[in-house]
């Protein structure tokens, strides 16, 4: 058993303010329409911290990840990486920045080139970042270091991806992402394509790597039990907005937003003792992001919705250390433990969320 | 919107056998020889109950289901065993007799609703097909039946939506259509092959609730194929745990999950991050499942088992009774039974030190 060192909350690797991104979608003869994939996202990731991103498909998780990787340009808002704006970088500066944010993809069967060996895949980044490891000796030394780090043998470097099992392929993907010594890894559903018995191996590896290297993670997943286990803080997304954020155990044990409460309640639990006393089953499905509801985006599926929810978008409400819900940032309690939700009628207690018997 | 968990569903009632599978073998012909993918699988599904086939990818659970439904790919064939649906052996039936069974006696719900539906026919036509073939209805009557079915599975405005094509529905709605198609002729047995794997968690809860409701209304036997332990824990009465084509444990879900008597079941249960603390190491099963081409002699689980001994390398263990209606294929199931005898629901029992000192 290892003891987890709490992340240093004072120093943020990444700070995102009011990030928005929309895509133009063709609407046939009617011209084109705007799809707002991200609508005013704000978040921060501390050094050595894991931030979980939770939400259903189509909520904007992947667009956010792609924007943070600079694969998409945001319409508005700011991204600060160690205080600097990566979108302002050019040339060498940009190349140097690319080293610091890397991504691990969901499907280890589709994301590795079948015609390259594991060694070639892992050391390919050195070809772009030429000045990092000069000469083949330095590169092969680093390759062995990486293989060792993710629990593969040095002879595995000569095998092709199809000779590995799913879990081992994901290890190759992780080694490739770590090759340039990044500060932030974006993990997009890193274990959801893996079998359960192998999933635990990869989660343990990610945990060990974080302690060893001090790297920060953004962990995107739809599996709530995994998110609870591996993240320090969590942000719940719905239709392009973060609707609730806070320290993982706070959000899981005392959800404020009705959507979060419904998510917690809907996910099946193995342990009968963990099952909600009452299960909230939401009506309907995620509305089209092309035509999001007015006011609060969740109101069409919310069981607490009233007239005001349709006319006014709720402001962020926070839960203070005294247990009271108030508008805006909580004034009591440490700021890094802020627990916020966007709702006119936040869930008042774990009992209302159906998590414990009333 | 809120509904109570029916934990009391396993009420005392006399059980009627709907499906009895005995010693089912399935072979796949490959260029390098015949591979046995399902080996001597036996289980029974009862009316009004859900039986879960649980296992990781490649364990043979879907092959078992396809063999029961008579939908095996041409390269695969049933090599032995009896599949008795309401007392009639499906394997010895003529193709014509078997087609007559499909629909009125046996329905199947596939994982991927978009590929299971025909893109060029409206859902109304596809849903009505069963009534036209088996009940000899004309187009108009069949369409009315289809609309009624769509209403039953919770599709809004069925009169209009019956004229829509599969791509015009969301994932959850497509799954509902597939379920409607499977239950159209009130089958005695419904096979659901990973019905919610492609869906989001809030929609998954809706679909599982629908399947539960239909099972009650029709008093069907449901065979649920899944890799999700939590889904099994919540939905099924009995569970069959498969590994590398073999049944390693089977019994009532409550007993198997609280007191597993096979090291694989135990390892799987321990791999689930339930109440683990952030940063704690998850227990995982080392290695990955064997390739079906190279299943070792002796126990199928020997290479990953913490309890492996010399006998496991030589003799394949038969299923032995380990509890009330509980069976395990392990030479050391007695040890696990003794362990499980402790009055604890905690899955984190320590493994006995039985490792072979060779």
UniProtKB/TrEMBL annotation, chain B:
Keywords: ATP-binding, Cell membrane, Membrane, Nucleotide-binding, Transport. Pfam families: ABC_tran (PF00005), oligo_HPY (PF08352). Residues 21-269 form the ABC transporter domain. SMART domains: AAA. InterPro entries: AAA+_ATPase, ABC_Ni/Peptide_Import, ABC_transporter-like_ATP-bd, ABC_transporter-like_CS, Oligopep_ABC_C, P-loop_NTPase. It is a peripheral membrane protein. GO terms for molecular function: ATP binding. CDD domains: ABC_NikE_OppD_transporters (cd03257). It is found in: Cell membrane. Its main location: membrane. Transmembrane segments: none annotated. Belongs to the ABC transporter superfamily. This is ABC transporter ATP-binding protein.
């Amino acid at each position: 058993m290892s003891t987890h060192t709490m992340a240093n909350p004072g120093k943020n690797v990444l700070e995102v303010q009011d990030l928005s991104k929309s895509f133009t979608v063709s609407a046939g003869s009617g011209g084109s329409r705007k799809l707002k994939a991200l609508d005013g996202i704000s978040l921060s990731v501390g050094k050595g911290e894991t931030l979980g991103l939770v939400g259903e498909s189509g909520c904007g998780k992947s667009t956010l990840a792609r924007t943070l990787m600079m694969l998409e340009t945001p319409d508005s808002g700011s991204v600060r990486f160690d205080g600097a704006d990566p979108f302002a970088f050019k040339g060498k500066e940009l190349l140097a920045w690319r080293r610091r944010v890397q991504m691990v993809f969901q499907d280890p069967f589709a994301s590795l080139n079948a015609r390259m060996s594991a060694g070639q895949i892992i050391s390919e980044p050195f070809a772009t970042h030429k000045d990092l490891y000069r000469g083949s000796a330095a590169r092969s030394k680093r390759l062995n270091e990486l293989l060792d780090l993710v629990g593969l043998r040095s002879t595995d470097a000569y095998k092709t991806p199809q000779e590995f099992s799913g879990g081992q392929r994901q290890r190759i993907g992780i080694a490739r992402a770590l090759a340039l010594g990044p500060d932030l890894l974006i993990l997009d559903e890193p274990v959801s394509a893996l079998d359960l018995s192998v999933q635990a191996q990869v989660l343990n590896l990610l945990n060990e790597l974080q302690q060893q290297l001090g790297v920060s993670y953004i962990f995107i997943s739809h599996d709530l039990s995994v998110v609870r286990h591996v993240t320090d803080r969590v942000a719940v997304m719905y239709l392009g907005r973060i609707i609730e954020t806070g320290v993982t155990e706070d959000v899981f044990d005392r959800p404020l937003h009705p959507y979060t409460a419904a998510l917690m309640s809907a996910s099946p639990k193995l342990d009968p003792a963990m099952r909600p006393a009452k299960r909230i089953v939401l009506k309907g499905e995620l509305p089209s992001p092309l035509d999001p509801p007015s006011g609060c985006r969740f109101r069409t599926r919310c069981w607490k919705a009233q007239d005001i929810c349709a006319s006014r978008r709720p402001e962020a409400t926070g839960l203070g250390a005294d247990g009271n819900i108030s508008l805006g940032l909580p004034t009591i309690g440490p700021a890094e433990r802020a627990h916020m939700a966007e709702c006119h009628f936040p869930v008042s207690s774990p009992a209302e969320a159906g998590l414990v018997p009333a | 919107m809120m509904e109570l968990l029916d934990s009391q569903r396993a009420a005392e009632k006399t059980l009627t056998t709907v499906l009895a599978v005995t010693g089912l073998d399935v072979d796949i012909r490959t260029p390098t020889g015949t591979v046995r993918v399902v080996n001597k699988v036996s289980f029974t599904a009862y009316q009004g109950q859900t039986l879960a086939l649980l296992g990781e990818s490649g364990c043979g659970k879907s092959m078992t289901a396809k063999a029961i439904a008579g939908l095996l790919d041409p390269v695969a064939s049933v090599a032995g065993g009896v599949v008795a649906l309401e007392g009639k052996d499906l394997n010895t039936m003529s193709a014509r007799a078997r087609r007559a069974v499909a629909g009125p006696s046996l329905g199947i719900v596939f994982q991927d609703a978009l590929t299971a539906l025909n893109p060029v026919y409206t859902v109304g036509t596809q849903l009505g097909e069963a009534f036209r073939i088996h009940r000899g209805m004309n187009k108009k009557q069949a369409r009315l039946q289809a609309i009624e079915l769509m209403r039953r599975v919770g599709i809004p405005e069925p009169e209009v939506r019956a004229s829509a094509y599969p791509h015009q529905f969301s994932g959850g709605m497509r799954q509902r259509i597939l379920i409607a198609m499977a239950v159209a002729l009130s089958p005695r047995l419904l096979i659901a092959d990973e019905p919610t794997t492609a869906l989001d968690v809030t929609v998954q809860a809706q679909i599982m609730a629908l399947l539960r409701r239909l099972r009650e209304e029709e008093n069907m036997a449901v065979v649920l194929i899944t890799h999700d332990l939590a889904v099994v824990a919540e939905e099924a009465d009995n569970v069959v745990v498969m590994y590398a084509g073999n049944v390693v444990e089977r019994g009532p879900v409550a007993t198997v999950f609280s007191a597993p008597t096979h090291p694989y079941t135990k390892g799987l249960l321990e791999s689930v991050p339930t109440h683990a603390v952030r940063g704690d190491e998850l227990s995982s099963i080392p290695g990955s499942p064997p390739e079906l081409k190279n299943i070792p002699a002796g126990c199928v689980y020997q290479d990953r088992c913490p309890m492996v001994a010399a006998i496991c390398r030589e003799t394949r263990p038969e299923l032995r009774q380990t509890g009330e209606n509980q069976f395990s294929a392990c030479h050391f199931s007695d040890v696990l039974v003794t362990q499980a005898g402790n009055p604890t629901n905690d899955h984190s029992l320590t493994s006995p030190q039985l490792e072979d000192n060779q």
